[in-house]
Write a structure and sequence with these properties.
One of its GO terms (biological process) is cellular response to phosphate starvation. The chain is built from 14 helices and twelve strands. By secondary structure, it is α+β, with helices and mostly antiparallel strands. The strands form three sheets. Strands 2-1-5-4-3 form a five-stranded antiparallel beta sheet.
């Protein structure tokens, strides 16, 4: 080996080399443990080398250059690089030690890379949005769910302040609150152009590895829960109202009866009390039936059902009402159509509700038609109930199957309806793996179409 003789300043050069290796490793993300190990080993070998060089006189120029070149390759990310010196070289033992540390660091780096990939896979697959902020409240991590929940259009948000990306003062205030005082804060956030979308954001303080306090934001879509809560509140309010009205009437009539015992008035008041009590009884029955359907606890006795026979019996039952309202039934169902699989009592309730509604909302001189519906490629049996009634406004069509929803509240109440009929119809269809469709034009009428599965042996 040729080179220059080791001068007196070799010792500080080697020390600087060891410190350079350690400093580079410390700059690697997640590799501080490896940096400490290598720095310690480098220092030990440097000290030993200095002690050795005090008693040795040799040429080390080429060896030092090789060590420096290898460290440069490590600094560029090439952890496969190794130092190979002659066994007689005084720096050979240092080279072997550095190679062992580099090998350990390479294994450690690969483990960290695998951990990183697993973490990224977990974050990507999560339905909840995750945003991690540094102590300066800049974004250091964000997953795809957060982009979607917060409707973030910009893709490059790393390093930007949270308020630049999510322009919401309440969330920003919550972040400052937890970073200063600790604990957690919960904020409800909604996109500006979507009223029924609600995102719950939980903000918590997060101690940073290098000091300081950042924050982590966990966001989840709670729109369904909030909608269910609103429906529950509406349900309670509607039930209270529906019960309060007849109870008020009953109480008023009973008080009048106490003050005025006139037999003629008493008879009329008792009749009205009976009607209101019957209304409450129907409401309670419908509520119980609807509850059982929603919890799938209502038994369904599926047998072959002949729809023309079932519907004809309903038309006979409603005939007097239709006649008094000057309406005409037009039953166009063929006498022989495929049998359907279903519970005859529940299916009778479906068609009784639909035809009763048609009778109620069709003016005198109108017609109610029952026809066989067909749809190309549809193996189910369809029956439509069409009227020439007042129709349903387009904005109400999507809500008519909700509990207690009435298009014409005054007329529905006057007829003794509970506001649950179409909700019950929808649930009965779901229990039968069928479906119901509706189309309507104001002033021209409404068509309800029921689809039911055919009966098969």
């Amino acid at each position: 080996m040729t080179g220059t003789r080791l001068p007196h300043y070799v010792t500080p050069i080697l020390a600087t080399l060891a410190l350079s290796v350690a400093a580079w490793l410390a700059a690697l993300p997640h590799a501080r443990l490896g940096a400490v190990i290598l720095a310690a080993v480098a220092w030990v070998w440097t000290i030993r080398l200095v002690l050795h060089l005090k008693t040795q006189d040799t040429f080390l120029g080429e060896s030092i250059v090789q060590l420096e070149n290898t460290v440069d390759r490590w600094a560029s990310g090439d952890l496969e690089a190794r130092v190979y010196l002659d066994q007689a070289d005084p720096l050979d033992r240092l080279a072997h030690g550095m190679n062992r540390v580099a090998e350990a660091l390479k294994d450690r780096t690969e483990d960290l890379e695998q951990d990183k990939e697993r973490l990224e896979a977990i974050l990507t697959s999560m339905a909840n949005g995750i945003i991690i902020l540094s102590h300066g409240l800049t974004i250091t991590l964000i997953n795809q769910a957060a982009y979607q929940l917060f409707a973030i259009e910009a893709q490059d948000v790393m390093g930007r302040h949270l308020l630049e990306v999510i322009r919401d003062v309440a969330i920003d205030d919550a972040v400052h609150q937890v970073t200063q005082n600790g604990g957690t804060e919960i904020v409800l956030w909604s996109p500006h152009d979507v009223d029924d979308e609600v995102v719950e954001v939980t903000v918590a303080a997060l101690n940073q590895p290098l000091g300081g306090v950042g924050a982590v934001l966990v966001a989840r879509n709670v729109s369904a829960q909030k909608q269910a809560e609103r429906m529950r509140q509406d349900f309670v309010a509607n039930v209270s109202h529906e019960l309060q009205t007849p109870l008020t009437i009953i109480r008023g009539f009973t008080e009048t009866l106490q003050d005025d015992p006139d037999p003629d008035s008493a008879k009329r008041f008792i009749q009205l009390i009976h009607e209101e009590a019957t209304r409450m009884s129907h409401l309670v029955d419908d509520l119980l039936a609807l509850s059982r359907m929603e919890h799938h606890s209502l038994p369904v006795n599926r047998i072959p059902v002949d729809l023309p026979v079932l519907i004809e019996s309903i038309l006979v039952k409603l005939g007097p009402r239709a006649q008094s309202a000057e309406l005409v039934f037009d039953n166009q169902l063929p006498s022989h159509i495929p049998l359907v699989a279903g519970d005859p009592d529940l299916l009778a309730e479906v068609f009784l509700n639909l035809i009763s509604n048609s009778v109620q909302y069709t003016p005198a001189g109108g017609m109610i038609s029952i026809k066989l519906a067909s749809e190309p490629g549809n193996p189910m049996v369809g029956v439509s109930v069409k009227d020439t009634g007042i129709g349903i406004p387009a904005q109400d069509l999507s809500r008519i199957f909700e509990r207690f929803y009435r298009v014409d509240r005054a007329r529905s109440r006057a007829s003794g309806g509970t506001g649950l009929g179409l909700a019950i119809v929808k649930h009965i269809m779901e229990l039968h793996q069928g479906r119901i469709e509706v189309s309507s034009q104001v002033g021209q009428g409404t068509i309800f179409t029921v689809w039911l599965p055919r009966f098969s042996d």
